[in-house]
Design a protein that fits this description.
single chain, alpha/beta, four-stranded antiparallel beta sheet, 8 strands, elongated
Length: 165
C-alpha cells in the first residue's frame, strides 16, 4: 500500500492543528502554500487528498465550505475519503492490454467495454495467474468449488461465452 498524503492547500491553521495530531493519524500531512508546490506534490504522490477552503480543479479534493467543523468529524471524513481512494485503486486489474474493473465487472480495451459475470471475472483472473494450461476439473474445483466427480458442462459453457465476448 502506498503512503496516503493529505495535502493542505493554503490553510495554515488547519495544517498546524493536524500536524500536532499527525502521529495518531493514518496519513501524512503536507502543507502547500502555492500552486507550484501543489503541482509538484500531486505529481509525486500516488494516493493523496487535497483539502482547501477554495474550490480548485483537481481530483481528490475536499472543499471545506462549512466552517467551523468539529475535528473528529473532519478526521472521520478524511479517513473515509482515503478508504474510497484505496478501494478504487485496488478495483482495477491489468491483464495484458485489458483492464478489468472488479467493482463494475467490466473488461475494457481502449474505448470498448464489456460486462462480465462474477464467474467470468474469477475465471479470467484465475487463468491469468497460472503459467500452465488448466484442466476443466481444476477450474471446477478452484473457481466453482465443485468436486471433480460431478458431471457438468458449466466450465465449457463459460469458456465458450468468454471466447465469444
Amino acid at each position: 500500500m502506498s503512503i496516503q498524503n493529505l495535502i493542505i492547500y493554503k490553510f495554515d491553521v488547519l495544517y498546524q492543528i493536524l500536524k500536532e495530531l499527525e502521529e495518531n493519524l493514518n496519513f501524512k500531512i503536507i502543507e502547500v502554500p502555492n500552486d507550484k508546490i501543489l503541482n509538484y506534490e500531486i505529481n509525486n504522490s500516488s494516493e493523496y487528498l487535497i483539502i482547501t477552503t477554495k474550490k480548485i480543479v483537481f481530483k481528490n479534493q475536499i472543499f471545506l465550505e462549512n466552517l467551523p467543523i468539529k475535528l473528529n468529524k473532519l478526521i472521520e471524513k478524511l479517513n473515509i475519503q482515503f478508504l474510497k481512494l484505496q478501494f478504487n485503486e485496488q478495483s482495477e486489474i491489468s491483464i495484458n492490454y485489458y483492464i478489468i474493473n472488479l467493482n463494475s465487472r467490466e473488461i475494457s480495451l481502449k474505448n470498448i467495454k464489456l460486462k462480465l459475470t462474477e464467474k467470468e471475472v474469477n475465471t479470467i483472473i484465475y487463468l491469468s495467474n497460472t503459467k500452465t494450461p488448466v484442466s476443466i476439473d481444476e477450474l471446477q474445483r478452484k473457481v466453482w468449488g465443485y468436486q471433480s466427480d460431478i458431471e457438468t458442462h458449466t466450465v465449457e459453457t463459460h469458456i465458450y461465452r468468454l471466447r465469444k465476448k
